[in-house]
Write a structure and sequence with these properties.
There is one protein chain. It is built from 15 helices and 15 strands. The chain has 372 residues and is of the alpha/beta class. It folds into two domains: 183 residues, NAD(P)-binding Rossmann-like Domain (Rossmann fold, 3-Layer(aba) Sandwich); 169 residues, NAD(P)-binding Rossmann-like Domain (Rossmann fold, 3-Layer(aba) Sandwich). Strand 7, helix 7 and strand 8 form a beta-alpha-beta unit. It is globular.
Amino acid sequence: MKIGCPKEIKPQEFRVGLTPHAAREAVAHGHEVMVETQAGVGAGFADADYVAAGARIVDTAEEVFAQAEMVVKVKEPQAVERARLRAGQVLFTYLHLAPDPAQTHDLLASGVTAIAYETVTDDRGGLPLLAPMSEVAGRLAPQVGAWTLQKANGGRGVLMGGVPGVLPARVVVIGGGVVGTHAARVAAGMGADVTILDRSLPRLRYLDDIFHGTVKTGYASAGTTAELVAEADMVIGAVLIPGAAAPKLVTRAQLSTMKPGAAIVDVAIDQGGCFETSRATTHQDPIYEVDGILHYCVANMPGAVARTSTLALGNATMPFMLALADKGWKRACAEDRHLLAGLNTHAGKLTYAAVGAALGLPSISATEALAI
C-alpha cells in the first residue's frame, strides 16, 4: 500500500502523523511510504531520518494526497486538505466530527473512508489511540492553567502551591477519566488543593485509592459542581463522551459566581467544550476572558510538546496503521471490532451514530459499511 504523511497545517501544530520508526516498520512490511518535506521538523525529525527509514520525501502535500492510498495525519483535515481527499482513499487521523459539521459534510462529499483515532476502542472499554494524547493534555492542563492564573496574563495572581502561611490554589477537575486523573496528579504535585468530580462511584473509589488522600473526590451532581466551581481558582474540564459532543457542565450564568480572574482550562474543546462559554483557541492566542473569567481552550494542547506527543501517539497508532496497510481497511476492520469502531465515514455515508445524533444527520452502522 502507498502510505502518505503530509505536514500538519493547523495553526501551531508541530506534531507529525508518522514517526521515522513507524515509517521503517511500514517499509519492512513491504509498503511504500511518502512523507512531505519538513513534515517532522516540528517534532524533531529531519527529512534524512525518514530517508534512512526507507521513506520517500515529496515536495508538496498535493503529491501526498494524490498518490497515497492511505493518508496518516494527526489533526482533522483542514478545508484545503479535505478538497484533496477522494473515494477509495483511507484517512487515518483524529477527526472529532461531532462539533464540526463543515468537516463532516466535506468528508461525506469526498467519499473517503475516514477512521478516527478517538473512536477506536479496546477490550477494556478504553480508547487506546486517544489515551496517549489525553495523558499529555491532562498533564499539561495544570501547567497552562497555572500560567493563566498569573496576574500578568489577567489571572488572579495565585500560586498553585501557595507558600507557608498562604493557602494553595483550589483546583476542581470535572471528569475522572484519563485526562482528569493525570490533571489531578500534576495539580496535586504542584501543591494545589485538588478535588476531582465524576458520576461513577466505582471510578471515584478507584481515584480515592490511588491518590491516598492527596486528592479529594466528589460526586458530580449539578449542585456539588456549582458549589465547587464557585470556590475554585482553576477549573479543568476533562469530560468525554466517545465520538459525541461534550456536555455543557458549567453555564455562563455560573461564571458570575466564580472568583474574578479564575482560570478555566477546557481540555474537552476538541469535542465542543464542556463550558457554555468555551470556544477553540490556538497556542498563538490561547486565552480569552468572559465576565472576568480567563478561558484557556486550545484545541491541540499536546502540540505544545510535539516531540513527546508524536512519539506517544506513534507508539499507539503503529499497530493499527500496519493492520490497515497489510490487510486493507475492510479486512482489517472486519477482523478487529475495535478498529471497526473507529470508522466514521465511508463512501458518502456517516458510520458513527453519536456524530449523526450530534449533527442531525442519518447514519448507518460500521458493519453495514463493510458491505458497501
